[in-house]
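Expect chain and fold; see below:
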Amino acid sequence: MLRGTGIVLLAVLFIFLLLVLAPLRYQAKAEGSTAAPSRIKVRVKVSCGFGLAGYTLEIKNHMVQGHFRLAGIGLKRFGQAKCPQKPGVSYDEQLLHEEPVLAKPPGKGKEGKRQKRRVKGGKAPQNGQGCKIALWEELLHLPQTRPALQKAAEEAWRLFVHIRPRSAGGWLSFSFSDPERTGLILALAGITLPIHRNSVRLLPSFTHEDRAEAELLIKGRILPLLVITVLARVWFDRNVQALVKIIRRRRYGKQQI
């Protein structure tokens, strides 16, 4: 009995360490054109535990399909159509001739009655919202707020550098009806060049029409232990803990800031 319990505990501990220490790898691939939405294909694959467990999500022909795999064995498959397609009519033509769905007019049903209760004389009640605004204004003037925000920003940047794609490739062709927007996208791409390192070829087109075509492939990995470490550094920071205690005390009315 004890021997069996020990084996189970060791197996659980091994799986836990494998999931925490082993990198979480992700891969995403997309291709298609806005001129033909039915031909857009997206495939996202996530694996952990050195490929022991994985999940794949595919979007193709307006269908969303996904399945889990454990040790190379498929566990569950599911799929859901975004919109039923009429026989003999392409999906793109169906979207063009589809009647828009109008929202329910206000004042009808339970939601309309709730809106009437909330709004009186064109003004919504401000008691709870005013207290929240006053709380945040007072928090911004505390000496612990600025160091806490700096700590959170530093750790967020460290986390972004870790989880960003390790490799990326492909091309992106785009154009807008206003050429100024196309130039703005190119300017933003130049400013963020140290981040994406020109891994994706940009092919701008000044044809005065809104369209986009792309074929992209990105790969990366995430170490769960590093993510847990970053979150722990932020949460256990003394300035963050001081702000959390002040918010809790103010919420329960034990202390005024």
Remarks:
- The radius of gyration is 26 Å.
- Strands lie at 24-33, 36-48, 53-60, 63-70, 73-81, 167-175, 201-204, 211-222.
- The CA atoms of residues 89 and 150 lie 56 Å apart.
- Residues 22-83 form one domain.
